[in-house]
Amino acid sequence: MGETTGKPAHLSSSVPDPWSVPVLPKPRRPHPKVVVKADLLPAVSVLSTAGLLGFPLAWLWSRLAPPQRMRVINDRGGLAPLELESWHRFDDLAIYGFLALGAGLLIGIVTWLLRERRGPVVLIAATGGATLAGWLGTTMGVSFANGRYEITSAPAVGDIIAKAPQIESPWIMLAAPLMTTLAYTLLTAWNGREDLGRRLG
């Protein structure tokens, strides 16, 4: 006698059990698309607001950057820096660079917190706003510094005057947009969601 398996002989192993629960395949969720039209107005707001940071950036730099003490060497207004004072040229550039990096980091993080608008459109706007802030910071910062250290009367030969700090490299204005892009990109990679968490539900 053969072994009994507990199943009727007329049921084949290929026939599914009528009491089993069928497992349906999970529906594929459509990949989220880049939203452009709905993000245009918020992107303009991000760009303009980020660009306005150039004014406090310029004012703060004009207060922190040290001037060069110079000696008047002739009656034609010739100037010669005192010993070690020429190092302030690097100090002025470095101080602005650190302030611009901080501004770019702030722009990148605050823009990322706009959860419903995350995406490349707002990122481009934030980078553009940081570029505008960097340009305003370099131009207005020098103007603020020139006004602060303005020489009201003609100095005599041998006098020591304070020369307003200057930003001698225009490339430093790229520090803010580079930091904005880096901060936003790192937060995007850390998030790891296809829609970047735009859906709040």
Automatic annotation (TrEMBL):
The chain crosses the membrane at residues 38-61, 93-114, 121-145, 171-190. It comes from Amycolatopsis thailandensis. It comes from the Bacteria. Keywords: Membrane, Transmembrane, Transmembrane helix. This is DUF2567 domain-containing protein.
